[in-house]
Design brief:
By secondary structure, this protein is of the alpha+beta class. The chain contains 28 helices and 23 strands. The strands form eight sheets. Strands 2, 3, 4, 7, 10 and 13 form a six-stranded antiparallel β-sheet that branches. The chain has a four-stranded antiparallel β-sheet with strand order 6-11-8-9, with no helix packed on it. The longest helix is centred in the N-terminal third of the chain and has 26 residues. The radius of gyration is 30 Å and the shape is flat. It comes from Humisphaera borealis. This is DUF1592 domain-containing protein.
Length: 765
């Protein structure tokens, strides 16, 4: 690239982006190339200062004119949570929409959130589905059974595959596919949140606690130990334990309970047939209770339900036949709808109450009058009241005022700022408290914003931020995209993958809840583990499947996200690891560096499954190509630092071979399973600046020598997620201020969120 021929007009966005690239490459020392003459340090600094000043000025001018990004629509996740919260329902709406494009690592970035004909059709479908769920008349569940009643529901199945009665307690000795020795709760009569309570105890488990898994089942083809498993609880041998948990169920779904550590029925049945008795581990279930659907306060949501009251207030509901005079079809449940004695008055009242909640701001009179006029016109045509209102609400949920986050290129006003806050921390619309604070002007003050952030982070809805941010930042949403090779990694089970996910989620939750340092994302002296992960990580034994916080020693080679099984799994393909893939991932997600795409004429590196050539040897040849060397200088160090971890995150000194060509190694933590040893794994490498490291522990220590860089990259991800726009050149000083402002709190994650909310980019479109 000849800079003398590049357009110097920074007002042109394309030209400015080119000069920003020049700035970053010169600042990083990548340019001029190492084999060319270098400018004096003073000259380099002067060049960067002058160019940086001009770039910031041009970037700021574009922001003042256009905003930091385009007006963006709700993502499909935000649409689902917003509608569910608004109508007090729990139903899947995301699957109605095409996947949202990922830009700058997140699906919230406006530039990638396009609108198509498929979206508009999906909005109609999703709104119809949600409204029907809100007024769906259904029974409630409030079952309370002892073990004998549970057993009596399917005695033949339980007896055949490993269950029997001991008084009023049911004993389970084996596990198998649904429905065998899987305890099923009653089907959900309608979508919602349900509570399951059970009392259980272990027996014959060598004094160790026994795990009980709770999951959701709606198909006979689902395996009980598949990713549908949602929660684990350990029950002891010396006493019964009562456990309560809440999960969302769709219509006709049900809870299922099973013992994932129990023997397979193919082990249980032959032994029972031969010996006529069973002395192995047994799970004893003495009570099973299911309640729901639940309201936000945990009480049962009886008909007509919170959703109905949100839409129709206190208007009584009647069977459709009483409203229309048309008798229902035989064998089908009759729907109930609101029967208004004053339809026009009720329509106006209900719409004026609903619109500000849906549009997340005070609604101008002409907008409210327009919706009311259309409803009155339909009533005059003889359209039934319930149909008029459902059509009106459907129009609201498909309106641009609902679908778009309306912001102008200026400091955000109260309601717009409230929406930015709520979609950052709750993935949904502002609640009444936040909107009231916005209307009162409290969000215009630093203290007012801080109070709301603390309140929102302490609310259970903040779990949505934790899940969504981690899913995207660390690619946890792709955890089950691949499965470890069953021959090479036979010790890996679906339950271990679930544990890996829980480790990362619990770890991030504690970083946020306890305001722990963002630097612990690189290295920590603690993590979450259970007996499955402890075996994988070769940590001291942890009894049971429940995740618990455990200390780490330097010798464990663990700590932080980089060495967690979930991250190491999503950066592998199930059979092989790639330093290129992992190195690129670390640069983009952790270090804030986006390597350029490789030249099209450079062949892809494939692993040598024969073991004749290691990946390090292959990459050495690859780097000899000048077009590849500059990128691999930054990609390879983290890639090779992580090469001592296999596709599931287990430590390795050697590669595994699929055939019987290598020495046989027994895995002591996994019952002596045998694997075949291949070539040794080399663990050290060199940083771009020439510093050498011996292993992953030394590599992380080198990263932490530049604390601000790590925190800045993390804060940039937060800022992108929070604002729906990538960090721009004009935001560099703001990003630096966010980092500097949290130094006194050791760069605490909670402090960083507060600092992001107080920053100029967050407070402006």
């Amino acid at each position: 690239m000849d800079l003398e021929k590049v357009d110097l007009s920074l007002s042109d966005k394309k030209s400015a982006m080119l000069w920003e690239s020049v700035f970053h490459r010169v600042a990083s020392g990548e340019m001029p190339p190492k084999n060319k003459s270098q400018p004096a340090p003073e000259a380099r600094a002067a060049f960067l200062a002058e160019l940086g000043k001009d770039l910031r000025k041009a970037s700021l001018a574009r922001q003042e004119k256009e905003g930091r990004g385009p007006v963006r629509r709700l993502t499909r996740t935000e649409y689902e949570t917003t509608v569910n919260d608004l109508l007090h329902i729990r139903t899947d709406l995301r699957s109605s929409f095409p996947d949202d494009a990922v830009t700058a690592g997140f699906d919230k970035v406006g530039e990638g959130l396009t609108l198509s004909a498929a979206h508009f059709a999906a909005y109609q479908e999703a709104a119809e589905k949600a409204l029907n769920q809100a007024i769906m008349r259904g029974a409630v569940l409030n079952t309370d059974s002892d073990g004998a009643k549970v057993f009596a529901a399917r005695p033949k199945e339980f007896t055949t595959f490993g269950g029997w009665l001991e008084g009023n307690t049911m004993a389970l000795a084996s596990r198998f596919f649904y429905p065998y020795t899987t305890v099923l709760g009653a089907e959900a009569p309608r979508n919602g949140r349900y509570r399951i309570t059970f009392t259980a105890q272990a027996r014959g488990n060598g004094g160790r606690p026994m795990p009980v898994a709770i999951g959701i089942l709606d198909s006979q083809t689902v395996r009980p130990d598949a990713p549908e498993t949602s929660l684990w609880f350990d029950v002891p041998e010396d006493r019964p334990r009562t456990v309560a948990a809440e999960l969302d169920l769709e219509f006709r779904q049900h809870f299922h309970l099973f013992g994932p550590s129990l023997v397979h029925r193919d082990v249980f049945m032959p032994r029972m047939k031969k010996e006529g008795r069973w002395d192995g581990p047994v799970l004893l279930l003495s009570r099973l209770k299911i309640e729901g659907p639940l309201k936000a306060d945990g009480t049962i949501d009886h008909w007509p339900g919170t959703g109905y009251r949100e839409l129709f207030d206190n208007i009584p509901a009647k069977p459709l036949s009483q409203i229309t005079g048309v008798q229902p079809e035989k064998g089908k449940p009759e729907p109930w709808f609101p029967a208004s004695a004053a339809p026009k008055e009720d329509a106006a009242r209900l719409l004026r109450r609903f619109l500000p909640k849906a549009f997340r701001r005070p609604v101008p009179e002409d907008v409210a009058a327009g919706y009311t006029a259309r409803a009155h016109e339909a009533i005059d045509r003889g359209v039934p009241f319930h149909r008029v209102m459902l059509d009106s609400y459907k129009a609201v949920l498909c309106s641009p005022h609902f679908l778009l986050l309306e912001e102008k290129p200026a400091p955000l006003g109260g309601p717009a700022l409230a929406s930015r806050l709520s979609y950052f921390l709750w993935n949904s619309a502002p609640d009444e408290v936040l909107l009231a604070a916005a209307v009162k002007g409290e969000l215009a003050t630093r203290d007012g914003r801080a109070r709301q952030v603390e309140r929102m982070l302490n609310d259970r809805r903040a779990e949505r931020f934790e899940r969504s941010f981690i899913d995207q930042w660390l690619d946890l949403k792709n955890l089950n995209a691949t499965s470890p090779d069953g021959v090479l990694y036979s010790e890996i089970t679906p339950s271990m993958v679930v544990a890996a996910e829980l480790e990362t989620r619990r770890f991030f939750h504690d970083l946020l809840a306890e305001n722990r340092s963002a630097l612990e994302s690189i290295q920590s002296d603690w993590t979450y583990s259970n007996e499955l992960l402890s075996a994988l990580y070769d940590l001291p034994d942890v009894a049971g499947y429940e995740m618990r916080r455990v200390p780490l020693t330097p010798q464990s080679r663990r700590g932080g996200f980089l060495t967690q099984a979930s991250v190491l799994k999503v950066t592998a393909d199930g059979a092989h690891t790639s330093p290129i893939i992992r190195g690129k991932w670390v640069n983009e997600r952790i270090l804030g560096v986006v390597p350029p795409k490789p030249p099209e004429d450079v062949p892809k590196i494939e692993p040598d499954i024969r073991g004749a050539t290691t990946i390090r040897e292959q990459l050495a040849k690859h780097r000899s190509t000048p077009a590849c060397m500059s990128c691999h200088t930054v990609i390879d160090p983290p890639g090779f630092a992580l090469e001592t971890f296999d596709v599931m995150g287990g430590w390795r000194d050697y590669y595994r071979m699929p055939s019987h060509t290598g020495a046989v190694i027994e895995l002591k933590r996994f019952g002596g399973r045998r694997v075949h040893r291949g070539p040794a794994v080399e663990s050290g490498y060199t940083m771009p600046d020439g510093r050498a490291f011996a292993d992953i522990t030394a590599y992380k220590a080198l990263l932490l020598e530049d604390k601000e860089r790590i925190v800045s990259a993390f804060a940039a991800n937060l800022l992108t997620y929070a604002t729906g726009s990538p960090v721009q050149f004009a935001d560099r000083d703001d990003l630096a201020a966010i980092v500097a402002g949290t130094r006194a709190n050791n760069f605490g994650v909670r402090s960083l969120i507060h600092a992001v909310v107080q920053s100029r980019p967050f407070l402006h479109k």
